[in-house]
Amino acid sequence: MSTRRSRLCLFAFVLGLSVCAEVGFCATVQPARMAIEASLRSMFSSLPAGLRTTTFNFLKPGRQMGAHPGAVPAQSPANIGSLSMPVEITELPIFELADPTHAEELFTKLLILEDTFSRQKIDVGPLQSATSLVREHLAESLRDHIEAQVRQVNAAWAMGAVDGDVVQVEEHAHGAQKRWELLPARRDRWKQLYAPDGTLKPEYAGVEGYKRFADQYYQGNMQYTFTDISAALEADKFAALGWGKSFSGTTQEYDEVRGRVLDERGQPLATMTGPGGYIAYADEHTGGKMLRAYLTVSAVLSDAECAALGWGKSFSGTTQEYDEVRGRVLDEQGRPISGLTGPGGYSAYADEHTVGKMDKAYQTVSAVLSDAEFATLGWGKQFAGTTQEYFQYRRLLISPQGQFNPEARGRDGLDFIAWSLVERSGNRAKDHAAYAKARQNLRVVLSEEEIIDFGWPKAKPKR
Question: Of 89, 221, 294, 318, which has the most beta carbons under 10 Å away?
């Protein structure tokens, strides 16, 4: 056993006991890690420069696996040279291989990379070597994890610390081992979706098909199902499944979430509608975390069902913070508070509550107000910058005495001022993204009447 040790939290799933034990790494962990790093370095060095960053990011823990990493053009200028090897490979926290969850995630992503690279005719030899090493380690690590779990629960049961039959825990552990043994086959599970003639089997179409496939091939895990199948299929073929959004839970949990907000006829429950229902759900089911509540519920509802709930926009804070933000801009009668209306109120709120960041102020306040309530504030459009930059932009166009800058008149004047802002900020001379941002911000700091007086063209409607 190595001298390096790791704490593994062992959960007795059936008996409801959580215990922790000291479990050592097996002697093969460190050599396996070194071999895996060497294989990945070899793989990266063989990749086209433009694909290295994409692949590197794809291997990070928690990274969504819904798109093929090879989708980025091999010679994408934005990626060339942005990953120097081999230093950064050691920064990836994917090598916490004592944790079976991390190792399994890495293994799954390496399998997806194999498929992707093979289709692009990129050498997968080093990749296959790393995949094999991860699989060997994961089998060993998972065995250690299972054996320790059963030992601990057996001991607690023998001392009378828990009630029940520990055999149930052993059965769960063996199920986990069986699941790992089947993991390599996950690459080809998408084939089960189609009949011999290549047509989609009707029982796997739509949301019910998504759930049925998860139950039959993924022990009900809808996140794994969505991740694997969306990675294996081309975007148009995956969209044709009609599975909707990814759900981070089981098929049973999916139905439970729907049942919390909709009745048997699919109509919103009265207690769960509007901002009050949004708050009530978050308080009851997600510890007051409103973004988590929004993402969870929106994942199990259609767009029409979400609209019927009337929750409005998502809020990335707690229910307490939601009420606090509303109270900062509206009085008890729901009317705007004096001093927080118009552009001056917009900048005042940003200075006081979001460290001068006007886009954050706009997003936070608009998320807790209805469209009608927000319109009464008169903040206009969102400014992508700080309050200091807001007034700098306005002074470039209109002096404190109200005089218009003649160089900013007309279409050419708008372009001239926008490009001058790009150069002043240190961006590249032809950075069109920075130009578009500057151009939009220039329009935001003016009223509609002032834009007309400058003779600027109308803004193109967003698609």
Answer: 294
Tell me the two tokens of residue 100.
């079976």
What single string gives the DSSP state of each residue in 438-455? HHHHHHHTS-HHHHHHHT
Residue at token pair 């200028």: 77
> At residue 14, does pLDDT exceed 60?
no
More confident call, 106 vs 394: 394
Percentages helix, strand, coil for the chain, rounded to the nearest 5?
Answer: 60, 5, 30
- Which residue in this structure is represented by tokens 């291997």? 59
Asked if pLDDT for residue 119 goes beyond 90, the answer is no
In terms of Cα–Cα distance, which of 276, 242, 243, 246 is closest to 261?
276
Mind listing the pLDDT tens digit for each residue in 259-306? 999 999 989 999 999 889 999 999 999 889 888 888 889 889 988 999
Q: What is the pTM of this model?
A: 0.54
Burial 403-442 (b: 16+ CB within 10 A, else e): eeeeebbeeebbeebbbebbeeeeeeeebeebbebbbebb
Ramachandran region of residue 266, left (φ > 0), alpha (ψ -120 to 50) or beta?
left
